[in-house]
Design goal:
alpha+beta; four-stranded antiparallel β-sheet; Alpha-Beta Plaits; about 30% helix; globular
Length: about 70
């Protein structure tokens, strides 16, 4: 299992967490998603997967949820 952390801008509530969790969880090989919410700031999302995920795939999933990755 591999863990990756990404930073997501603009999440403010439990609904935001649920949306990002749902989209990222749908990526192939993802086994778990844990969000450390910083309301109105930059939240940290820890993704556990079978293998490292491409940043573009993670960015697309986060974008689908309505948010954006930061560097």
């Amino acid at each position: 299992m591999e863990q990756q952390q990404i930073r997501v801008e603009g999440m403010t509530c439990a609904h935001c967490v649920a949306a990002v969790t749902q989209e990222v969880s749908a990526l192939p090989g993802v086994r778990g998603v844990d969000v450390a919410l910083v309301a109105g700031g930059t939240s940290t999302v820890t993704v556990t997967a079978d293998a490292p995920l491409e940043r573009t795939a993670l960015a697309a999933a986060v974008d689908e949820a309505g948010y954006e990755l930061t560097d």
